[in-house]
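JOB MANIFEST
job_type = single_chain_structure
chain_count = 1
residues = 70
[input]
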Amino acid sequence: GTIIEKAPGDVNINIIDKKLDEKNIKYIRYVDDIIFFFDNAREPEIVKNYVNHILKTETKLNINGEKTTN
């Protein structure tokens, strides 16, 4: 797509990156795929809920349940 088509996605990704960095959440991202790293078994659910909250409140997006694994 064009730069104009990609701009909203880039803004959303920047919002997500900023929020994750503020909470010191360990992750790597390639385009729109994110892989998280956890120190204990409770963190995945906590981070998933936090990311879902960011997506809903800041970007109006949702986590794709078919592509999300624990």
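[summary]
Helices lie at 3-22, 43-59.
DSSP finds two helices and two strands in the chain.
exit_status = 0
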